[in-house]
């Protein structure tokens, strides 16, 4: 293959696009970390601005008053949601408090019975076998036990340090979150009050081609974000239905309430319904309720299998994406970013697909192959797939 001057320019432009994209991504992450309360406020204003416009047009409220009313309504909705969640937690704790003493008592009996009937006879057998060993063998066993004890002590120490760090992070997180929320609400007021002026200034200073792309991006992003929310609701409802059927078969009391709570837990990445079903299942095995433990294990396994099998399809249908691409994005996101990647992977896939749909990828490909061209030359260029 003969490398021409044109090929060299193509490679240079491709390298420039890759470097510029990486730099842009890095700058965006840095700016977002430094100013994320204001970004969150801008997103909230964008979401609630139709209500602000409605209050101005229908109730003839001044712009400032409409923003304040919308802010108060959003705060009331947030507080109402938090109150509802706290109310559900209080009801759940009150319900559990009726059974916790009985569970602790039965668990203590089972542990004591297991110690007396299994561990103690086993220890007596080990002691008798230890006496029959030679002095060298006894020393070797003693050294092994000492090493095991040292490693267990180190493990407990590391676990204690990790627990302390977690508590420290929580103590730091709470006041930081309060400060962030205050800044978000203050920024909501100022951004909402000057929203049209800010948007008008951006509209004047931004080239028309970028405004056209941004409007198309906004439309596609709204469609796919609402599709993602719809998909998560569908998955939560399916998980709740599976758990409800399983608990009804097992004849568990308050099956509807438990299934509803498990469905809400499905929003947690990676853990999901296991947050509730796994501890419950372990408790059943410890207390000797083997049948109930096996039943809960089956319910959990069915829930996980059904979710893993239908999640790519539900996401792809709701967000108009390829099911295989969603599956790859889920796995790659989890491998690269951990638990957060379960959400970040599909999100990045959505951004990529939107950029492709509105023609940004096509424009970049045209730039890599032909460089900067004027409108007359652009009409004559047709990019044909190889």
TrEMBL record:
GO terms for biological process: transmembrane transport. It is found in: Membrane. It is a multi-pass membrane protein. The keyword Metal-binding does not apply. InterPro entries: AI-2E-like, YtvI-like. It comes from the Bacteria. Keywords: Membrane, Transmembrane, Transmembrane helix. The chain crosses the membrane at residues 12-32, 38-55, 67-93, 170-192, 221-249, 255-273, 280-303, 323-355. This is Sporulation integral membrane protein YtvI. It holds the Pfam family AI-2E_transport. One of its GO terms (cellular component) is membrane. The gene is ytvI. Belongs to the autoinducer-2 exporter (AI-2E) (TC 2.A.86) family.
């Amino acid at each position: 293959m003969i490398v021409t001057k044109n090929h060299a320019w193509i490679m240079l432009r491709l390298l420039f696009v890759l470097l510029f994209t990486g730099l842009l991504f890095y700058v965006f992450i840095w700016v977002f970390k430094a100013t994320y309360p204001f970004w969150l406020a801008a997103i909230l204003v964008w979401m609630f601005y139709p209500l602000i416009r409605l209050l101005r047009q229908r109730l003839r409220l001044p712009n400032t008053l409409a923003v304040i009313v919308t802010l108060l309504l959003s705060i009331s909705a947030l507080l109402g949601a938090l109150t509802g969640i706290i109310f559900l937690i209080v009801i759940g704790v009150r319900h559990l408090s009726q059974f916790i003493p009985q569970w602790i008592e039965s668990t203590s009996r089972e542990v004591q019975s297991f110690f007396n009937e299994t561990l103690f006879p086993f220890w007596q057998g080990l002691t008798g076998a230890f006496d029959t060993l030679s002095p060298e063998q006894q020393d070797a066993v003693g050294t092994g036990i000492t090493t095991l004890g040292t490693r267990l002590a180190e493990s407990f120490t590391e676990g204690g340090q990790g627990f302390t760090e977690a508590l420290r992070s929580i103590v730091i997180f709470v006041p930081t979150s309060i400060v962030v929320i205050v800044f978000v609400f203050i920024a909501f007021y100022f951004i909402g009050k000057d929203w049209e002026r800010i948007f008008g200034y951006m509209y004047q200073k931004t080239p028309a081609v970028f405004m056209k792309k941004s409007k198309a991006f906004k439309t596609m992003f709204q469609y796919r974000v609402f599709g993602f929310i719809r998909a998560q609701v569908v998955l939560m409802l399916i998980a709740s239905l599976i758990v409800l059927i399983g608990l009804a078969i097992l004849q568990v009391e308050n099956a509807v309430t438990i299934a509803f709570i498990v469905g809400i837990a499905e929003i947690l990445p990676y853990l999901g319904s296991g947050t509730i079903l796994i501890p419950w299942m372990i408790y059943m095995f410890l207390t000797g309720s083997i049948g109930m433990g096996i039943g809960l294990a089956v319910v959990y396994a069915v829930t996980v299998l059904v979710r893993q099998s239908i999640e790519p399809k539900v996401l792809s249908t709701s967000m108009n994406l390829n099911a295989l691409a969603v599956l790859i994005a889920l796995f790659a996101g989890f491998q690269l970013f951990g638990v957060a990647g379960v959400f970040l992977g599909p999100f990045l896939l959505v951004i990529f697909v939107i950029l492709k749909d509105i023609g940004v990828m096509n424009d970049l490909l045209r730039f890599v192959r032909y460089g900067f061209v004027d409108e007359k030359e652009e009409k004559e260029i047709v990019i044909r797939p190889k």
